[in-house]
Specification:
Elements (H helix, E strand, L loop, with lengths): L36 H11 L4 H15 E6 L2 E8 L2 H15 L4 E5 L9 E6 L1 H11 L2 E3 L6 E4 L9 H15 E5 L3 E6 L3 H13 L5 E3 L4 E5 L1 H9 L3 H15 L6 H7 L8 H14 L8 H12 L5 H8 L3 H18 L1
Antiparallel strand pairs: 1-2, 2-4, 3-4, 5-6, 7-8, 8-10, 9-10
Helix pairs in contact: 2-3, 2-5, 5-7, 7-8, 10-13, 11-12, 11-13, 12-13
């Protein structure tokens, strides 16, 4: 069930990402923090938590990537075919929370050895229509009340948590992070339309990507990868990767902590990461106490809530978004003076 006070999903919630959990020694390592794809996915599964909005984005991504409608004697069922069994199980939990119907997972081992095995979740018509209605992608005939059309194009991402849910499932189902000579994030999609839709959306957020028409893979490199994980709500991963890329581009003789303090604040990792870098730069220089009370209040709110947008930080402090934005700009400018 959704906890109305904390807006989290029972049995799925784990510890939230906290900037304090990032050990200072991580910033002293010259090579920075590196991630292996399998270990990163396992870590995300262990800490994955949902608000009601994030859960909806998660389910919407499942329809977009691996969901199909199946008209049979049983009615209009929906079938989801996942590559990852843990993701399929997590999807069943989320559906159960949203609709009260716990989906069942079946294992399918294809006879064609060239195809990968799948973990299939089938939902009955009642649950399917409820989810499609909540996701606002269903159109019904006003006269008969029956399903008319379904819009499964890329949704509009007006809500940050909804966006987080969509893109974290995108990575868990279709993403592969590799780090041989350098990091590369590949997202394997099924159609060219999906590649173009997601590529255009990422571009609108300032996240550059490339793609191979033959393999239908969307490819992100360096800072675009950290920005993608920020978009997915994985702030800690985004910050660690962003710092790794900054450190890699700087003189190898400078220590990790010095790199962290003098990092180019104009290079966008994410808005949140940039702000946290600025605040920690001021703290490391023992200048935090020189900030005005209002700036200290905003800085502490940002440190305690690395995943929130500046608008939600403003709401916490009961100030306008414009006021919060301008105060944060003053903090960033002061950090530049400090370094």
């Amino acid at each position: 069930m959704i906890d109305e006070d904390n807006k989290t999903v029972d049995n799925i919630t784990n510890t939230d990402i906290n900037i304090d959990e990032i050990d200072e020694t991580d910033y002293d390592k010259v090579d920075g923090k590196r991630y292996l794809n399998k270990e990163l996915k396992e870590s995300i599964f262990d800490t994955l938590s949902f608000t009601d909005s994030k859960a909806m984005g998660f389910v919407r991504a499942a329809f977009y990537l691996v969901g199909e409608l199946d008209k049979s004697q049983k009615g209009l069922n929906s079938v989801f075919s996942f590559r990852n069994p843990v993701l399929a199980f997590k999807f069943c939990q989320v559906v159960g929370t949203l609709t009260g119907y716990p989906g069942e997972m079946a294992f399918v081992n294809p006879t064609d050895k060239r195809k990968v095995r799948r973990f299939v979740v089938e939902l009955p018509e009642k649950v399917t229509l409820e989810l499609l209605s909540k996701l606002k992608v269903i159109t019904t005939d006003k006269r008969t009340g029956k399903l008319a059309t379904i819009n499964n194009s890329l949704p509009k991402f007006e809500d940050e948590e909804y966006t987080n849910g969509f893109f974290i499932l995108l990575y868990l189902e279709a993403g592969k992070l590799s780090s041989y000579d350098d990091y590369k994030l590949e997202i394997q999609l099924d159609t060219l339309e999906q590649v173009e839709e997601i590529s255009e959306f990422l571009e609108s957020r300032g996240i550059s990507s490339g793609h191979n028409d033959d393999s239908l893979k969307l490819i992100l490199r360096t800072n675009a990868i950290s920005d993608f994980f920020a978009l997915s709500g994985e702030t800690k991963v985004a910050i660690n990767l962003g710092l790794y890329f900054i450190n890699k581009s700087m003189n190898g003789n400078i220590t990790r902590k010095e790199n962290f303090m003098i990092a180019n604040l104009d290079k966008t990792l994410t808005a949140s990461a940039q702000q946290i870098v600025a605040i920690m730069t001021i703290r490391n220089a023992n200048k935090f106490g020189l900030l005005s009370d209002e700036l200290q209040e905003l800085a502490k709110a940002r440190e305690e809530n690395p995943d929130l947008s500046i608008q939600k930080i403003a709401e916490l402090l009961q100030i306008s978004k414009s006021t919060a934005y301008h105060r944060m700009e003053r903090i960033i400018e002061y950090a530049k003076e400090v370094k």
